[in-house]
Design brief:
This protein is mainly alpha-helical. Helix content is 83%, strand content 0%. The chain is built from 13 helices and no strands. Helix 2 runs antiparallel to helix 3, helix 3 runs antiparallel to helix 5 and helix 8 runs antiparallel to helix 12. The longest helix is centred in the last third of the chain and has 39 residues. It is elongated and about 105 Å long.
Length: 279
Amino acid sequence: MLGAGFLTEWNINKVMSEIIKINYRKLIQRLDDIRGCKIFETLVIAVIIISALAIGANTHDLPPNAIKVLHVLDFSITLFFLFEIILRMVVTPRFKDFFKKGWNVFDTFIVAVSLIPIDDSEGILLARLLRIFRVLRLISFVPELRMLVGALLKAIPRMGYVVLLMFVIFYMYGAVGSMFFNSVDPGLWGNISVAMITMFRVVTFDNWSEVMYAVMDVHPLAWIYFLSFIFLNAFVFLNMMIGVVIDVFSQEHEKHSKEIGKGEAFEVHDTHEVVLALQ
């Protein structure tokens, strides 16, 4: 009898444990559905935009009542962001996996610094400055913006070679300009460093024609020097950098399409997999 009672109690505990696990999984699933629904995503984006507008409103001279409203709004936004980040942590199957994604670490940091209270202490400027970064959560929350930023970051190493080549051209033209045009205007061509700054002014089209015409009064053929420099830097190298960014963006777009299972890239990849399987 004692053994039967023990087994009965053990069975009851096991059943209760299974019921708790099932209810917990259902709760997690419901929370995950809430996190992934379009209404909640739209609400998060709206709160981020409202947070940005509130930060901008704080830069104006406001009456005391408006300042109190903004303080309440800031507190509410902070609580909402805290709830949203905790929700995402809870629905992650393994807590450690949440921090394996860089954007999750970024969001957690932004929310953590938002918890710094704003009062009349010496850290009020720092607290307000840190709250500005909450606007960046819009990048981490919108997949398309994340793809753009990711493509830009991956393009930076490849753009480095273009920048290095541009620096070589700047250095060569700066050296030539400081040698031949020093007598025209020492303030613009006095040495290679100043000459390179002048060439940067030329390539950004900041009254570059005035610089060219001043030199052409002494050296009539100087237009070849300026136009060739503008052609190389403002057109050739700039288009090369744009081409690098577009190439990386195309690769990221194909990768993103494969991950979400949509788009032409996914269809081509899926067709390729089917052909391999048939072979």
